[in-house]
Amino acid sequence: MGGNSPCASCKLLRRRCTKDCTFAPYFPSDDPQKFAIVHKVFGASNVSKMLQELPVHQRADAVSSLVYEANARVRDPVYGCVGAISYLQNQVSELQMQLAVAQAEILCIQMEHEPVMPASQIDLDHKSYFLQNDLSQFLAFDSSSNVMQQFCP
Ligand SMILES: [Zn+2]
Question: Which residues belong to any copy of the LOB domain (predicted)?
Answer without folding.
Answer: 5-106
